[in-house]
Amino acid sequence: MRLPAAAVVALLLITAPAAAQDRTGVRDCDDFIQWFAACMQASNVPAQAQPIFQAALEQMRSGWRSM
């Protein structure tokens, strides 16, 4: 099932500001997290897989921030 364009735009508007504010403090890690988030949004990740990828993104961010 594909998301309608409006749903994708809404997802971008909701997740992008949170991702921008939630930095690890390590430029390369922040760049990778930004790339990973953009890849998730641009690659038509199936709706049922989105929570899994989002959880992985949050786990990476949290782990790198605690180092």
Can you put this structure into words, describing what you see?
There is one protein chain. The chain is mostly helical. The protein has a domain at about 25-65. About 75% of the residues lie in helices and about 0% in strands. It contains three helices and no strands. It has helices at about 5-20, 25-40, 50-65. Helix 1 (about 5-20) packs antiparallel against helix 2 (about 25-40) and helix 2 (about 25-40) packs antiparallel against helix 3 (about 50-65). It starts with a helix and ends with a helix. The mean pLDDT is about 75.
Question: Structural class given helices, strands, pairing?
Answer: mainly alpha
The ordered H/E elements are HHH
Question: From the alpha-carbon coordinates, what is the Rg to the nearest angstrom?
Answer: 12 Å
Number of helices: 3
Query: In percent, how much strand structure appears in the residues?
Result: under 5%
Q: Which oligomeric state applies?
A: single chain
Morphology: flat
Mean pLDDT: 77
Helix content: over 70%
Distance between the termini: 38 Å
Question: What are the key terms here?
Answer:
67 residues, mainly alpha, 73% helix
Summarize the topology:
Blueprint: H1 5-21, H2 27-42, H3 50-65
Helix pairs in contact: 1-2, 2-3
What would you say about this model in short?
This protein is mainly alpha-helical and 67 residues long. The protein is built from three helices and no strands.
